[in-house]
Amino acid sequence: MLTLLNLLKDGRFHSGQDLGAALGISRSAVWKQLQHLEAELGLSIHKVRGRGYQLSAPLMLLDPLKMAGMKAVWPITVLDTTDSTNAEALRAIGLGQEAPFLVLAERQTSGRGRRGRKWVSPFAENLYFSLVLRIDGGMRQLEGLSLVVGLAVLQTLRKLGVTGAGLKWPNDVLVGNKKIAGILLELVGDPADVCHVVLGIGVNVNMQVAEEVDQQWTSMRLETGKSCDRNILVAELGEQLLAYIQRQQIDGFSVLQAEWEENHLWQERSVSLIAGVSQIDGVVLGIDNQGALRLKVNGVEKVFSGGELSLRLRDDS
Ligand code: ATP
């Protein structure tokens, strides 16, 4: 089906006859495939008598050859559609694929956030990126890793013209109070010995409408007013991740602590820390040298860490 999309992606008109000839199928088979593209991928295709078919807007698909050097750094798999790039990456680890490697997809049918929440992932609009690393230096190599990924995503967005973005502990990237990117780290193996970690990153790139997203969100396109070639984004994000992760692995997370705090949108804010059904109210002091949250609770500094914690602003903040 992507072959047909590759023919149409220039946004120009193509006759049913030409499409059929290029694909070696009948005109009615072309028609069926087009209907399938519309239904499956949510694309809108115009049909004009005498001219043929045209996508409502040109598409820039993911292409490793356009990712400026990244293919040389990590083997890249690009999928048209998958349940979740993190799930795909975990399956590949299970099958023995050697890390590092990168999984990208044009769309996710079950994109995931933390604690089973859904990440809305329409076709060809955003970035769905899962990088697999093998960690064999023990726990220290994992310290603050999800916060480090947040810094790399933030710098990437800035380089590509998104101003005003910042971080929310532990690993959200927001513009104001609108979410522009989400990060989900998943780990398999023994963290104290040898393990694999999947760095899952979803960035809203060219998305302009998404009724299913049930909290405030934005995209690079909405922030900059320009569409972004996701291949350039992959290359930039790859470079930033390489640089930040290398620093963390060599020097430890503590060298990034101050930079992370400078970019924390909720420093000094009154927040509630939610852990399941319990809630702790306090004021954000920052993070410690392992990436744990420092909160002032009833005048006393307390430190919190763990993947199940969520921060919410308090109304009186
Ligand atoms: P937390 O503060 O615990 O991180 P969160 O609600 O931001 O809370 P995540 O697991 O990070 O949770 O992300 C999943 C949530 O993000 C979804 O429940 C939904 O509200 C929102 N969401 C889903 N898809 C998108 C998207 N493409 N862009 C922005 N936000 C999204």
TrEMBL record:
InterPro entries per the UniProt record, alphabetical: aa-tRNA-synth_II/BPL/LPL (IPR045864), Bifunct_BirA (IPR030855), Biotin_CoA_COase_ligase (IPR004408), BPL_LPL_catalytic (IPR004143), HTH_11 (IPR013196), Transcriptional_repressor_C (IPR008988), WH-like_DNA-bd_sf (IPR036388), WH_DNA-bd_sf (IPR036390)
Presence of the UniProt keyword Ligase in the record: yes
Matching SUPFAM superfamilies: C-terminal domain of transcriptional repressors, Class II aaRS and biotin synthetases, Winged helix' DNA-binding domain
Coiled coil: none
Protein EC: 6.3.4.15
One GO biological process term: regulation of DNA-templated transcription
Top-level class of the enzyme under EC nomenclature: ligase
Any one GO molecular function term: biotin--[biotin carboxyl-carrier protein] ligase activity
Residues given in the record as biotin binding sites: 84-86, 108, 112-114, 179
Residues annotated to bind DNA: 16-35
GO cellular component, one term: cytoplasm
Pfam families given in the database record: BPL_LplA_LipB, HTH_11
Domain BPL/LPL catalytic: 63-249
Reaction equations catalysed: biotin + L-lysyl-[protein] + ATP = N(6)-biotinyl-L-lysyl-[protein] + AMP + diphosphate + H(+)
Record's keyword terms, sorted: ATP-binding, Biotin, DNA-binding, Ligase, Nucleotide-binding, Repressor, Transcription, Transcription regulation
Family stated for the protein in its record: Belongs to the biotin--protein ligase family.
Protein's job: Acts both as a biotin--[acetyl-CoA-carboxylase] ligase and a biotin-operon repressor. In the presence of ATP, BirA activates biotin to form the BirA-biotinyl-5'-adenylate (BirA-bio-5'-AMP or holoBirA) complex. HoloBirA can either transfer the biotinyl moiety to the biotin carboxyl carrier protein (BCCP) subunit of acetyl-CoA carboxylase, or bind to the biotin operator site and inhibit transcription of the operon.
Designated name of the protein: Bifunctional ligase/repressor BirA
Lineage: Bacteria, Pseudomonadati, Pseudomonadota, Gammaproteobacteria, Pseudomonadales
The encoding gene: birA
